[in-house]
Amino acid sequence: MKILLIFTFYLISGSVRCFDVTGYSGGSVHFNSWNLWCDECLKYVAKHDPHSAIIKDKKYGQWINGEKFTLYRNKHGNLMIFIRELNTTDAGRYRIGVDGQWSFEITLKVIEDSCCGKSKTVTVNSGEYVVFRCEYSQDYKNNWKTIFKEGKDSIDEIYSTLNQTERFHFFDDRDKNLISVNISVVNVYDGGVYFCSVWDNKNSHSFVNVVHLHIIHKVGSYKVTGYSGGQIIIKCEHPQYKTNPKYICKESDGCSERKYPGVENKWVENGDVSLYDDTRGGVLMVFFRDLNAGDAGTYRCGVNISQYTEWFTEVKLDVKDDASLVQRVYKSVYVGEEVNITCQIPEEHEVSSKHFCKEDDDHICQTVNTSEVTQMNSLSERNAARVFTVSISNLTVRDAGVYWCGTETSEEHLSFISLTTKVQLNLINFPMIIIICVFVILLLIGGFTLIVWKLTHNKRQDAVETHLPSNSSDGLLYAAVRVQKHEDCPTDDIDTFSKEIYSDYASVNHRTRLN
Question: What is the pTM of this model?
């Protein structure tokens, strides 16, 4: 019975393969299980002493990530194991397998050596030639050397001593324990993570050093001119990468400080500039306000194609000091009237490149928003004065604000607006006040005139009443009218009244005045 139990245990557990794997602190190891990947099966990685589950995942994809462990399927369908950024605490015994099908164990040894476990970053322009080197341990002088590259869902061997191409050259200097990798005519697809490895045994490679190769592609170089005290808006166009992260940086500091908008389709202030990531057009707008000599220099206005590949437009910003161009103009105009603004064009710009704009709530000057369409006079190449005039008619209160005059220049991958003349437009409502005041004054005069007339009329009425005698008897009124001849009268004839007087009693006595 005892023998049967032992035999049964052997059938259930089966034999487990064991392998020794060596890595270096700071480096990585790459291991081939030589077993097929199973999409629907549960894959796992567990560490012994003490026992802990590292990966226990059921995925249909080809790539499973743990904290340091990665399981993936290579191009031959095998399950591969990759352990990165090793340190001495990672040493120990591990079991790796597919639940219910197969498993094996590895004993990982981690060595500390100054030769290995290093990471470096190499940056090169597309079309150029790049060289990177990796040191390895003296213990691996005679071992096979290879270069691996990390892809989206795999880590594949791409170059070795026996696998070279026209653009790629691999050299193993065993006297110096040094691997040299040369890549000519670098393109944007060469960017990525490269691992310099030594063959540890039949199943594993030890990745002794890692190289992060960054490829930058310059799509063009342009000179941009601004003026001290003025403003400039630079528009970098990347229409094929509308939603990719965009940035600007200054080459004088090695582009170490890259400024990203951080949000889409909104102005964001970042230090001394404001940025706008236009994802609809694939344009990065960079706004410099209050330009000064310190802003001059060479900039990269770029877009990240991938983590290791980027395209950029080289912008050479020249800031000139010209007090005759940079002006501050203040205008006060009545509401409803028209204003004319005269703007000067710098010598460096075409006269047809005129630009006029109004500051928005973010103090960014891009477009014009007025009650009436802003008219700019037509210019010709023979405009000796190099000026243009802007007319805004039928002004309303909302037209008040800050306007800028300048020029706009467009190139294939870049355009920029240089603003030099600042116009502060104030709107006055004074004519309406005058109308109201005149109306009030006329109303007062009319009221005063009416009061005076009323008082005068009342006085006359009172005077007439005082010369009319009255007899209270029978309630009848009597009136007597006397007509006398004046001494200056030229004739003795006196017309007698022929008109009737409507009253109950009336008597008229005709008397001749004696001198």
Answer: 0.69
